[in-house]
Amino acid sequence: MALSLQQRGSVFLVAVVCLLVVGICAPFSGHDLQRAMQISIGLCAVLYGLSVTRAAQLVDRPTALGLALIIGLGLVSSALAHQPLWAFTEVALFVSGGAIAVAFAWLRRHGGEPLDRALIMVVVLLCLIKSIQYVYAGALAFTSAERTLDPDLLLAGFSNKRFYGQFQTFTLPLLALPLLIPTLSRSLKGAVFALLCGWWLIAIGGGTRGTWLGMGAAGVVLAALGPWGRRWLGWQLAAVLGGLLLYWLVFTVLADCLGIQILNGASDRLTTSLSGRGPIWWQAWHMLVERPWLGFGPMHFADIANKIAAHPHQAILQWASEWGVPSALCVAVLAWRGGWATFGLLRGRALCAERADLMRLCLFAALVGALVQSMVDGVIVMPNSQVWLALVVGWLMALHVWRTPVTAELPLAWGAWKALSVLAVGLLVVIAARDVPHITQAQQQYLGSQGGLLQPRFWAQGVIAR
Predict the structure, then answer these.
(1) Structure pTM?
(2) CA 303, CA 86: separation in Å to the nearest integer?
(3) Which conformational region is residue 314 in: left (phi greater than 0), alpha (psi within -120 to 50 degrees), or beta?
(4) Residues 338, 216: Cα–Cα separation, whole Å
(5) Which residue stretches of the chain have pLDDT < 70?
(6) 3-state secondary structure the chain
């Protein structure tokens, strides 16, 4: 018996939640497992999208044309790249992210407001599990015989603490949503606020300055979005103070009482240093100057080996150096149009207290925070961050209120997008099937020959230079 579209949406949601829990919360999780999680979610999204036979408008015509231009330029750049297969793989990741965003948009449109509650419950669940893991690791560290403690070692489930920080940039804004709902009981609000304080404790202890920068920028933007935006900011500031108090009690007072020395404390991160980003920014700049029109090819920053990273930790420089300046300008224009349209909608409905409006507010804060962090970090590179970026964008598309009546998509365009999505995810599955059985061996060979650390890009060993 064939499942209805709503039932398929439920299956898609359950599959995504299970994959997120494993990819984020499993103690053995890391970059490679999260990349496999992303590919699996992309596959589920494509299968769900194939079941949508009649599609209503999700984006306007200029946006659709802009996306087609970006993909077209990416394909031409890939064909001319030094390693076309890896370049096409990066384009496939972009298309897969679009498929995930479209699937979440359709899921929210068909599911309605109950899906907003489901999303927040998932966020609360993930943050609660990670907080429990952090507290458990801290308890083991404080009760051990060691006289030194590095808070970075308490962060589990991510290959790098900056990747953990990126996840927090997406979830800190959403975690404040229950605190904005007037009808929620005080006891539930108290529990959520305690979790938010604990989540900020981890963000402070992790020392990811990109997260602090992104959340600061989101706070400034939301302060201009009326009383609900300022209320969101008030809750976040209160939670920051709570997190600072917890950090001081645990890593200063308790540590001093037990005679434990704290290494890599949060105060050590209060610097203006670029943490090695200068050389890789210059590399990206020289790449875009040398090939401004089509770039070196998607993913091809990783084709020029350096001792720091396989991506420049700066979204604009990365896109311009790899895809070309015209493609980067097109991406920037589309991001600005979408962000400005959402900003205008939020300003126009600043006094509304409907749950959909509050949800839109928190999603916009997460998007602003992530985009600002992408100026100094690899938000558009890491698999978990790419999934959450697609989720936030898709949910915002579903919640958008159009000024003109929504029209049906052209059947030819919708069919072409489905075919492209299938090809993109199919390529990612082929790459995963080819590489996963040999990942450990390849990493050991790289470490043995280079004697350094892994540089994540597609896989944890992301350098594709031969």
Answers:
(1) 0.96
(2) 10
(3) beta
(4) 21
(5) 1-2, 5, 53-56, 404-410, 450-451
(6) CCCCHHHHHHHHHHHHHHHHHHHHHCCCCCHHHHHHHHHHHHHHHHHHHHCCCCCECCCCHHHHHHHHHHHHHHHHHHHCCCCHHHHHHHHHHHHHHHHHHHHHHHHHHHHCHHHHHHHHHHHHHHHHHHHHHHHHHHHHHHCCCCCEECHHHHCCCCCCHHHHHHHHHHHHHHHCHHHHCCCCCHHHHHHHHHHHHHHHHHHHHHCCHHHHHHHHHHHHHHHCCCHHHHHHHHHHHHHHHHHHHHHHHHHHHHHHHHCCEECCCHHHHCCCCCCCHHHHHHHHHHHHHHCCCCCCCCCHHHHCCCCCCCCCCCHHHHHHHHHCHHHHHHHHHHHHHHHHHHHHHHHHCCCCCCHHHHHHHHHHHHHHHHHHHCCCCCCCCCHHHHHHHHHHHHHHHHHCCCCCCCCECCHHHHHHHHHHHHHHHHHHHHHHHHHHHHHHHHHHHHHHHHCCCCCCCCCCCCCCCC
Q: Which of 199, 208, 191, 155 is nearest to 173 (CA)?
A: 199
Q: CA nearest 311: which of 204, 458, 194?
A: 458
Q: What is the pLDDT of residue 405?
A: 65
What gap in Å lies between CA 53 and CA 5, rounded to an integer? 10
Who contacts 435 (Cβ-Cβ below 8 Å, separation ≥6)?
442, 459
Tell how far CA 181 is from the center of its chain: 25
CA distances, 113 to each of 110, 354, 357 (Å) = 9, 10, 11
Give the pLDDT of residue 57. Answer: 76
What is the C-alpha R_g of the chain? Answer: 22
Amino acid at 336: W
What are residue 79's phi and psi, to 5 degrees?
A: -65, -30
Half-sphere exposure in the Cβ direction for 429 (13 Å, CA): 12
Report the pLDDT value the prediction gives residue 1, as an integer from 0 to 100: 45
Q: How far is CA 23 from the centre of its chain?
A: 13
**What single letter denotes the amino acid at residue 438?**
H
Rounded Cα gap, residues 286 and 292, in angstroms? 10
Q: How far is CA 34 from CA 44, 133, 155, 284, 460, in A?
A: 15, 18, 16, 26, 10
